[in-house]
Every structure is written in C-alpha cells, then in structure tokens.
Design brief:
Layout: H1 3-15, H2 18-54, E1 60-65, E2 69-70, E3 73-74, H3 85-94, E4 98-113, E5 116-125, H4 129-132, E6 137-140, H5 145-149, E7 154-157, H6 159-166, E8 175-178, E9 181-189, E10 204-208, H7 209-217, E11 224-229, H8 235-249, E12 260-263, H9 265-308, H10 310-318, H11 323-359, H12 368-394, H13 398-402
Parallel strand pairs: 5-10, 7-9
Antiparallel strand pairs: 1-11, 1-12, 2-3, 4-5, 4-8, 4-11, 6-9, 7-10, 8-9
Helix pairs in contact: 1-11, 2-9, 2-11, 2-12, 3-8, 9-11, 9-12, 11-12
C-alpha cells in the first residue's frame, strides 16, 4: 500500500467513531495550543523588554561618577567629583570604538510658565545626546554645539512637561522659567514612554550641560558621561578602553579601585533575555504535560481499537497483509490522529495568543519556530505512543484473530 492509501484508510477508520476520535484529539489540541500560547507570551514579553532597553540609546555606554570612602564609610555612586568635561573630551578623542560622547548631569528643578508650574528632572547634555539616545525632536529643533559653548539658556521639553505647563498651546519659541532663569524652548521631544524601570522618560527637560553646570547646579564636575559605541560588537572593547583611559587620567594605582562606574544597557538586555528564556521554557514545559496526557490517551484508544478490530486484522492477514502492513496501518492512524489534533491546536494557540494580547493587553509574539516545533512534537507523540499498539496488532496470530469474537 502506498502512503496516500494508508492515510485514506486511517481517516476512514477514525471516522467510524467520530466522538471518540474528537475526545482523543482534545488532549493534543489543548497541549499544542497551550505550548504555542505560553511561548508567544514569553517571547512577546522578551521582545517588549528588548525594545524598552533599546529605546534607552544606540549601543550606549554610561560612565557614572563612582563612590568615595570617607572615614571607612562608602558614600555610594556619584559621590566623587573626579569625572570631568575633559574626561569626556579625552574619550571622544582617544577611544576609536566610541562614535559619540556627551557629558551629563542632572538636577531637580521647578518649571514655571505663567500661572502653571511643574517639578521635574532637568538634564544637562551635549549636542550629540539626542543621537546617542535615539531621541528625535518631534517639533522645533535641538540645541547646537554653539549653544553648548556659550552656555545658552535654551532647552528641549519632554512631552509630559510640555503638557503640564503649556496644555494645548504650542511651546516652541516660548519662554519659561527654570529656577527663576528665563529659558527659550527650542524643541519638543518625541514621546518615549516608560523606561524599563517604570520611570516616565518624557517627564524631563534637556539643556546644554554647560548651562546646567554654571547656572543651575553650580558645579564643575560631571555626574555621568554618555557614549555610543561604533557598533554593538564594539561595546565590550569600548568599555575596557574607557576604563583604562579614565584610570590613567585619574592617576589611580593598580591596587586602587575605580572612582567611576561603567555600565551598558546590553548587560540589562542579556540578563532580561536569559530570564525570559528560562520562564518561557518553564511555561512551555508545564504546558507540554498536556501533550503527554494526550499521547497516553492516543495509546489507550489505539489499544482499544486493536482489541475491537482483532477479527478485521485476522482477515487482512488471511488475504495477504504482512505484519509490516498491519503495523503501518495502526501507526498511521495514531500519527493522523495526533497530527490533526496538532493542526487544530496550532490554530487554537494562535487565536489564544491574539485574544490574550487583545483582552489582557499583553504583548505576544507567535514565532514560526514555535509552530513548527509544536507540529513536529505532536506528530512525534503519535509515533511514540502509537508504536506499541501497532506492534501489538502486527504480532497477532492470524488464526486466533479470525476466531476472536
């Protein structure tokens, strides 16, 4: 018998007991659907975290002012005053794996426009800050290097700040007060939304770092330096070269700890990806138990079918069917049963993923690989759990089978 004839006979045999066939497939349908749905939720969450981390910046590297030890008491990060503008300039000049560098510092400020005011976080940055952060200007323009050089009273508003102090008015070209100093609004930043840590990235004001240092914070050191590596692959080398350069500039001995901290969002991305993979595998493993239960159901039904069709098996062997033909027939029925259940389960899983995304607002991602693995696994379940009943049917004695009632 060729393959098409075997499948046709298998479908006809399964159609004899439609309700039993449907109930048997139910375990496979639930298992495959659950696996696809859980993997889609896990991959969707991973993609969302990756997108949030990528929104922080383009191949970004952050250098923070480090800790200082005073009388045996460590004062925490950003306690040192050794990170300077000259360090940022040296990083831009001497580290070839860094494409852009921006000095930075921040301070809480009160912003006033007419009779409206808002407390927010102001950031002092270089002209390249917006490229490093991949933060486009929605309206207006960004401040220039000349604005940085002359410490101009200009700024860019985040969407939250603009809404709070301007409402529906156009803020471009308007003058606001920051710490009782007049500032001209050059541009409105595009909306960024929440960061990975739940902070509102749009609740901010960006101004030249020189303006922040001289007129707002009143300091001559930096709290951080933000840089962008030439490529994602260059991030480790850039971090290593930055560390060596800053240690040299800060005259640190070999036995002295760094007075700065270097971080990259890729570290967060790798950690988040690892956690997401573990959770996805855990959820998929739990869901796959349904597949095993479905496989046991297939074995049970096929054993019942062998018992019910013992006389039929004897007739087939009497008219020339070999043991391989009988084994192939019952094995094909198990595979067809599990494969049909797998196909329906795939549809259930995809629809379930869409429903979860729509009703619960969770980000889901149904990948082709998860569908392919689920389909292959369901067929494998049919082969694994259908082999023993098929083997049992093939080993029946034709004479005894014909006499079976």
């Amino acid at each position: 018998m060729n393959l098409s004839e075997v499948i046709r006979i298998a479908l006809r045999a399964l159609a004899r007991n439609k309700m039993r066939t449907i109930l048997t497939m139910l375990g496979i349908i639930i298992g495959v659907g659950a696996v696809i749905c859980t993997v889609a939720i896990g991959e969707g969450a991973s993609e969302q975290v990756q997108a949030q981390i990528q929104s922080l910046g383009d191949n970004m590297i952050m250098v923070f002012a480090g800790s200082v030890n005073s009388g045996g008491v460590r004062l925490g990060s950003q306690a040192t005053k050794t990170l300077t503008v000259e360090d940022a300039e040296a990083m831009q000049t001497h580290i070839p794996t860094l494409a852009l560098v921006s000095p930075g510092l921040g301070s809480s400020v009160q912003v006033v426009n007419g009779n409206l005011n808002w407390s927010t976080r102001a950031q002092g940055a270089g002209a390249s800050y917006f490229q490093i952060r991949k933060w486009p200007i929605a309206e207006g323009s960004s401040f220039s290097q000349r604005d940085v050089d002359v410490a101009a009273n200009v700024c860019e508003l985040g969407q939250t700040v603009a809404t709070q102090i301007f409402g529906d008015q156009d803020p471009i070209g308007q003058t606001i007060r920051i710490q009782n100093l007049p500032f001209r609004v050059l541009g409105l930043l595009a909306a960024k939304g929440q960061s990975t840590f739940g902070q509102d990235q749009d609740d901010t004001i960006i101004m030249p770092y020189t303006t922040m240092m001289k007129k707002i914070a009143g300091i001559d050191w930096l709290q951080y330096i933000m840089a962008s590596a030439t490529s994602q692959g260059d991030i480790p080398a850039a971090m290593s070269q930055t560390s060596a350069l800053l240690r040299q500039r800060h005259h640190l001995r070999a036995d002295e700890a760094d007075d700065f901290i270097i971080r990259s969002p890729t570290e967060l991305a790798d950690a988040a990806a690892g956690t997401s993979r573990i959770l996805t595998l855990l959820l998929a493993s739990i869901a796959s138990v349904s597949l095993l239960v479905g496989g046991i159901g297939i074995m049970n039904i096929m054993l019942v079918s062998v018992t019910e069709r013992t006389r039929e098996i004897g007739v087939r062997m009497a008219v020339g069917a070999t043991e391989q033909d009988v084994q192939k027939q019952f094995l094909s029925e198990a595979v067809v049963l599990s494969s049909l259940g797998g196909l329906i389960g795939i549809a259930v899983g995809v629809v379930g993923s869409i429903a979860v995304s729509k009703w619960l607002g969770w980000n889901t991602l149904v990948s082709t690989s998860s569908i392919l693995i689920a389909a292959l696994f369901s067929a494998g379940v049919g082969i694994f759990f259908g082999y023993y009943p098929a083997q049992k049917a093939a080993r029946l004695d034709p004479i005894e089978a014909l006499r079976y009632e």
